Amino acid sequence: MVSDFCCPVGYDWGIIMASTKHVLLFGDSLTAGYTKRGWLFHPYGEKLQTLFDAANLDVQVTIDGLSGDRVIFLPWEHRLRTQLEKMRRSEIAYGAVVILGGGSVCPLSTQL
């Protein structure tokens, strides 16, 4: 169970879910919505926002995906630190953060 993995046993997820107002989706081209070899971008965050809206939940999805960025490069780290700094300064309080990266890099670093 997710709650056992990241939070103390007995953690009340109902409180977290009820208070979640902002969700950050952070990543590279997959988060940016790269598809059709770059001719089309359709971020999965747009669908997530649609689902939240359809459920009448007051949740704002922030998509921070950058095509061409890689988890092994400094710009990735800089963008992540920028988002974390916003949280530290209380500009925005993310109730959930999804980090997706490395999907397109993994095949490149695999030796046969």
UniProtKB/TrEMBL annotation:
<dbReference type="GO" id="GO:0016298">
    <property type="term" value="F:lipase activity"/>
</dbReference>
<protein>
    <recommendedName>
        <fullName>SGNH hydrolase-type esterase domain-containing protein</fullName>
    </recommendedName>
</protein>
<dbReference type="GO" id="GO:0006629">
    <property type="term" value="P:lipid metabolic process"/>
</dbReference>
<dbReference type="InterPro" id="IPR008265">
    <property type="entry name" value="Lipase_GDSL_AS"/>
</dbReference>
<dbReference type="InterPro" id="IPR036514">
    <property type="entry name" value="SGNH_hydro_sf"/>
</dbReference>
